[in-house]
Design goal:
This protein is an alpha/beta fold. It contains eight helices and eleven strands. The chain has an eight-stranded mixed beta sheet, with helices on both faces. Helix 5 crosses helix 6. The longest helix has 14 residues. The N and C termini lie far apart (48 Å).
């Protein structure tokens, strides 16, 4: 095991269990009475990419998650969407903690967990061109900046996606690095394939990028949002609220 990897710690407050990497920063959370509920606001917004998928196609394809967190998205893609899911997490302690404390299912069937550096794993070409949903949340233990954030990384993420596939990435929208990160994503995906949501109260901004995604009209998006809220009511996804948050990328003047 890499001795430089941070330790894993837990805390609980008001019925919610939190994951930390040796600091007070929250890396993930699960409500103990409702483990299927997606607890954190920014994690909910990472699922806004579902709006770009036709309702009858939800549950098709494969999912990849770079950075496990507290396994909220993993549980969603596995148990709610029933997608074959690959998770890449560099820290084996995080994987163990999620299995013991955050209801991460055992491997086998639809789930594969790879303990590796996400950048190195992407270079293997595993699943290239076959992924429908990609979720990227690769902040370090201090939550200071994404650990993988260059144009080559985002190009590799795009290459992972099938036509019509989508990436959702967690960034800090109030940080000076956000515009640089956004520009790198645009360079890899194209300006017409990048959208962002408003920052959360904590400053997390989710960016969604697609590979050849066709965006429907407002009425169809509203219908999809209503269908998502109905189908995933246990998970608490506020999809109609997402519609008021989403903004397409605009080239700086």
């Amino acid at each position: 095991m890499n001795r430089d990897l941070p330790s894993v710690t837990l805390s609980e407050h008001d019925g919610v269990r939190y994951l930390h990497l040796g600091t007070p920063w929250v890396q993930g959370a699960m409500r103990l009475s409702r483990p299927q509920h997606v607890e954190l606001d920014y994690v909910q917004r990472m699922l806004a990419s579902l709006l770009w998928i036709p309702t009858d196609a939800l549950g098709e394809g494969e999912a990849v998650q770079l950075g496990l967190g507290a396994a909220s998205i993993t549980r969603f893609t596995l148990q709610a969407l029933r997608l074959r899911t690959t998770v890449v997490e560099i820290n084996p302690l995080v994987v163990s903690a999620c299995r013991i404390w955050f209801r991460l299912p055992d491997e086998g069937g639809l789930l594969r967990v790879v303990v590796d550096d996400a950048g190195r794993w992407l270079k293997t070409g595993d699943l290239a061109g076959g992924v429908k949903l990609l979720h990227v949340d690769l902040y370090d233990h201090d939550a200071a900046a994404p650990v993988l954030d260059d144009e080559a990384f985002y190009a590799a993420c795009r290459a992972l996606l099938a036509p019509g596939g989508l990436m959702a990435v967690n960034l800090f929208g109030r940080d000076a690095s956000f515009e640089h990160s956004l520009a790198r994503i645009v360079a890899a995906f194209g300006a017409d394939q990048v959208w962002s949501l408003r920052p959360t109260r904590e400053g997390n901004t989710v960016v969604v990028a697609g590979r050849g995604v066709v965006v429907p009209g407002r009425d169809e998006l509203a219908a999809r949002a209503a269908a998502i809220e109905h189908r995933f009511s246990r998970q608490g996804l506020p999809a109609r609220k997402w519609l008021r948050m989403v903004r397409p990328y605009r080239t700086p003047e």
